[in-house]
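Protein record
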Amino acid sequence: MADALPLVLLHGIGGTSAAWQPVTDLIDADREILAFDLPGHGESPLDAARGMASQTADGIFDCLDAAEIGRVHVCGHSLGGAVACVMALKQPERVASLTLLAPGGFGRALNAAALEGFVSAKTDAELATALGPFFGPGFEPSAEMLAGLARQRAKPGSTARLRECVEMVAAANARSSLPLDELAATGIPVAVMWGARDIITPYEQSFGLPDAFEVWRYESAGHMLIDEIPGEVATVLARQISNVSGMTDPISDL
């Protein structure tokens, strides 16, 4: 493999590391993939109070240090995209590339009401309804996705932890946005992917970004790019890795 650096994957609010399966199924099996559960989510040992982007970025670097892993590619969706950006700002020498899917922190607008509805839903039926605004027209979440989310929500304290995450993220978003010019100045290759039907982290935030960012827009997609266009996500990830390695990274099944 031309570039053996591990790939770090960071999910969005209300999800878990398992959310990445539609994309990881398309990535070359020889690449090490480190998909994290963010604080307050899934099997993370950290509660939501440790869920701010800066603290989460520090925690991920601690995990990489413990595994003696230096430089990595990072891909983040929504909240995970904001965490990925903070990682690059804190330790740019350790982030080989950034791939950001409808990232948080690119503007102060955020559909907190939809996020609250999503994290409060518990049953398959409630989740299907709450997820409606997250997808582009005509896309429906799979039964497998709904069942996996329902299992997570059935765990004691899950809803309270997720609601706390939403409140913290909404408050942080209202205060400030990420310093995108500083991010561009690091020289890290940054690719941004956004669905034109996204009303969670609004599509309008994909405009006016630093010239150094490569921006990919998808007319029919909403917020859940991992589920809606996994092949395109895998392809952009391959391009990002190629930007660093100088060679095209092998992706299967595209």
Q: What stands out?
A: Residues 38 and 44 are 6 Å apart (CA to CA). The chain is about 40% helix and 15% strand. The domain at 7-107+178-245 is CATH 3.40.50.1820 (Rossmann fold).
